[in-house]
Amino acid sequence: MSTQSRQLSILALVHRVPFPPNKGEKIRAYQELKFLAEQGHHIDLLTFADVKEDRSYGPELSKICRRVRIIPKNKKLGRLRSGWTLPVGRPLSVGYFHSFRMSRVLSRWLDETHYDVAFCYSSPMAEYVRHLALPKVMDFVDVDSDKWRQYAEHTKQPMKSVYKLEAHLLSDYERAIAESFEASVLVSEAEVGAFRKVAPDAKQIVSVPNGVDTAFFGQTVRTPEPAERPLLVFVGQMDYFANVDAVIWFANSVFPRIRAKRPNARFRIVGRAPTAEVKALADLPGVEVTGGVADVRDHLAVATIAVAPLRIARGIQNKVLEAMAACVPVVASPNAFEGIDGVAGEDALVAESEAPMAQAVERVLSEPGLGVALAKKARTLVEQRYAWAPAMARLEALLLAAAESRPPAR
Description:
This protein has 17 helices and 13 strands. The strands form two sheets. A seven-stranded parallel beta sheet has the order 3-2-1-4-5-6-7, sandwiched between helices. A six-stranded parallel beta sheet has the order 10-9-8-11-12-13, sandwiched between helices. It folds into two domains: 9-211 and 387-404, Glycogen Phosphorylase B (Rossmann fold), CATH 3.40.50.2000; 214-385, Rossmann fold (3-Layer(aba) Sandwich), CATH 3.40.50.2000. The model has no long low-confidence stretch (mean pLDDT 94). Helix 2 (58-61) links the parallel strand 2 (42-49) and strand 3. It has helices at residues 24-38, 58-61, 75-84, 92-96, 100-112, 144-153, 159-180, 189-198, 214-218, 241-261, 276-280, 297-302, 318-325, 334-337, 354-366, 368-385, 388-404, and strands at 9-14, 42-49, 67-72, 117-121, 136-141, 183-186, 205-207, 231-235, 266-270, 287-291, 305-308, 330-332, 349-350. Helix 6 (144-153) packs antiparallel against helix 7 (159-180), helix 10 (241-261) packs across helix 15 (354-366) and helix 15 packs across helix 16. It is an alpha/beta fold.
């Protein structure tokens, strides 16, 4: 129970069902709600289900929330509504997440319940509450407008123009939210610095870092493949643009350089919902695509190296924290490592382009003590700096302060 005396009634809006906590955005949202519930706060959760199975997680979420409503998300309708927002200058993502059904449920809840504060996770959810006098806190997580800018840089027309437009519209929208909400939350100090440029007049911008379950990943029993037949493992949601771009680039541009010196090397892509492009990589020599797995620790256990070659990234990469927690040496791109409060060369090897990344992998493979040293340092780092509770306590303090910032409604 929190040492704070006040128990808040929190209206929470999350853009995707935060359960099971098995991918970045779901892990963070779930940990936030779970911690707040453990401190005695009362949470009413409104959220969207992208896929049919997500609709079944209401009972699990009801263990930590007072009330839960999961709204099915029609993706085709969402894409149509995205286009409707353009004439009024709203981001495509705001149109995508527009729902009359959610608005009706929200209206009913507001009539029935007094809320001390609204908590939104992901910027499109702000649209449902931005007109309310209720104190509001937004977890942007990352600077999404810059992520769309990166997408535009790494794709071709016509989507290049679409992504560039979304970056512009979303930047304006992020600024408006930050100026009207009591606090804006980002996942790292690097993201805070970037967001200050987007929203210089924001009321308050605070970093609340991601954490990692060190006990869970610490149970990984390491039996890594030897350097003679190394296994490089990438873990991530494999229909996510940035992950898809990363593995395609690595498999085609970096991995052949590694195989030239290590003919028995393998590159294993572990993650749910691989796209057709990702599945096709399994036709390349030494490349494996698993699809969804029951427990990623089984693959981290045998990995010689965990690779995180993201060319598009913002914030803290859970895949890197999880590999570190499992004592797997990491080779990452600068974008993948940027949000982590570690030291390149000590906690992970960091390299950007094709040749340097291949060389970094080869260095770990050819220097037996290096991988052990990297893994040991990285494990200590996550134990000391990436526990969930201290970060979540910062979020709780923001919500309490926001609730106190305005007089209670009569």
